[in-house]
Q: What sequence folds into this?
DNA sequence: ATTGGAGATGAAAGCACTTACAATATTACC
DNA sequence: GGTAATATTGTAAGTGCTTTCATCTCCAAT
């Protein structure tokens, strides 16, 4: 922690700097005797090698770039937390970069991280993959420099690894379950058409189609997924109902939207779940805030993160790792739906 | 973005590397003509200087260490978000380190950040300052290396800067307001005795004392402040009520605890606010999840963060800056209290 | 006693920048 | 046109590590 250099240590220990460097890096080409001698000096003076010089020599400072649209988003914040913990446990540090949701900002953020010489970039969230391939160029470019890890999105390119949850199946099952509970007019309430957004929607559609219940009027998009807008979400449902849209169930693409539906039901004096059953997505802490509490789909974020880090560590040590991994989610039943 | 060095650029531009370095660092000792010439080459080849070599030469990589107990905590996550944005706007990047709540982990986390050669460390949250001075040694040590910024805590030491909200006054006013609304048996529900925890409590005590209403039995501590425990929080209140404790108001030290009180009231069939008025703290998104919505104290986090960064930037450029700044909070009245 | 080879060590050349200082070019002024 | 002052540029010495390669030590095998 002092400002000594490797030269000071080598002098005090009576060895060359090469030897000090070797014990610093755990090389086994050092005799036990001199290793101990050097370590003693290092501990005595609380010497810490200069990280920049180390970085220059090794071309790495053991840092990983974490990118997400908004680190204050409930779900993303949890992911950041898990990932940071896991990385540090593996000897890596995290440099965080909130990119926002537009492509240009993402490209800029990516440049920042790459120019910081991170060992890898982890893109947290399904909004980093675009329809058009040219819009994903910034990812391909980054992957030419360092491995790129995607959480909740998948993209097939060299040096890009994807960890996703099976959103399609989760939504398919949630929808099927609601149909089986006797509800046939189910609204799908969503905001994003991101990678996972599309798969969720497809899960709903497939389940509805299989029962001959799909009506295009029951797909309702809201412009935002932000918590601040839950009242506006509620209003939108209210207006739709006033205009004659009839629905006794809402499947929402995330918990904020589901909470909007709860707000709507409460304002309209509807009983939950008798008059309106509601399912959310992400199983965030929002689920336990409202009354009744919210049924939601848990996509096993911690497991996804663990697997992501395992994969990344494998890649960084030069191992062949799977390019895409899929995990199943789970429906957590609470008060806003009928128990099976 | 390529792997060129300053030598390549100097060669292609027909100047020395010193000149390239000068334009890279915005030195004004370069003629416009050569500056343009060099910039053209840099842009043409998309050259980015090697961050490690730069760090070694400048002894800085323009990164700031962000430390918080748990980045997935609602309030801390918001702080991280604001700070990261502001830092990046000022040309700095953030390396994130979630320290947990125990001292030893914090010391370790601090070592990690310092050894990464950050330009400053920002401690986010009131739990970084301890009663005993020896427990704050890790901060003093860190401050010997780089400026240390405290958000929501204050500590007087060289090179340590504190940005706090006036928790005492906020709590004093919230309590006074509740008393004036006609409630005299007000429970104080808290978990932490951190820097701001103590000040909040003092605000409540002072207000109650001034009205001769303070009863020590009305101070109720809960072991955790975590959202997962809201049901347990509710149970604790329920048990206390069953044992004969009477209260018609709850002032909670944060929104999670307040939500616990809401859960209790709902389970016990109490009307809010008629039978039980509730005030939370932090004005987090939890406030709008429950019904009725939660009155809470907003401590102007964004303002605090802005001021913190302003102060930090001043310090880093060698200016004299105030060691401690205090901002007022504001009570946001919602449905869990009587409107004034 | 001799040789070969493994294991331990050191000298020195990177790594890609910054910057003090010296050298040169340019301008200003008489 | 000459000189001093100033603006611009280059040389070279850091910055603190890693690592290759050569050297040296030591011991087992012959």
A:
């Amino acid at each position: 922690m002092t400002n000594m250099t490797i030269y000071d240590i080598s002098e005090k220990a009576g060895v060359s700097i090469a030897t000090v460097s070797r014990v610093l890096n755990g090389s086994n080409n050092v005799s036990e005797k001199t290793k101990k001698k050097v370590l003693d000096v290092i501990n005595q003076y609380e010497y810490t090698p200069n990280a920049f010089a180390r970085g220059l020599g090794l071309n790495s400072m053991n840092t990983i770039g974490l990118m997400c649209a908004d680190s204050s988003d409930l779900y993303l914040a949890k992911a950041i937390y898990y990932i940071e913990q896991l990385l540090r446990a593996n000897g890596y540090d995290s440099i965080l970069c909130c990119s926002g949701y537009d492509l240009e900002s993402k490209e800029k953020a990516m440049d920042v991280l790459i120019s910081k010489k991170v060992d890898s970039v982890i893109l947290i969230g399904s909004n980093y993959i675009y329809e058009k391939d040219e819009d994903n160029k910034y990812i391909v470019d980054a992957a030419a420099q360092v491995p790129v890890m995607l959480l909740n999105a998948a993209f097939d390119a060299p040096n890009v690894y994807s960890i996703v949850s099976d959103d399609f199946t989760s939504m398919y099952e949630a929808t099927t379950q609601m149909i089986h509970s006797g509800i046939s007019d189910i609204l799908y309430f969503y905001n994003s058409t991101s990678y996972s957004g599309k798969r969720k929607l497809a899960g709903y559609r497939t389940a509805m189609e299989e029962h001959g219940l799909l009506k295009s009027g029951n797909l309702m998009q809201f412009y935002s997924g932000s918590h601040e807008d839950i009242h506006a979400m509620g209003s939108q449902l209210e207006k739709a109902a006033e205009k004659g849209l009839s629905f006794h169930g809402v499947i929402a693409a995330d918990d904020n939207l589901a909470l909007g539906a709860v707000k709507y039901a409460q304002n309209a004096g509807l009983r939950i779940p008798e008059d309106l059953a509601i399912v959310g997505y992400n199983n965030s802490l929002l689920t336990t805030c409202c009354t009744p509490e919210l049924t939601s789909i848990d996509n096993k974020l911690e497991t996804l993160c663990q697997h992501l880090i395992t994969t990344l560590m494998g890649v960084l040590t030069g191992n062949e790792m799977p390019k895409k991994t899929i995990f199943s989610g789970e429906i957590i039943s609470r008060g806003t739906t009928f128990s099976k």
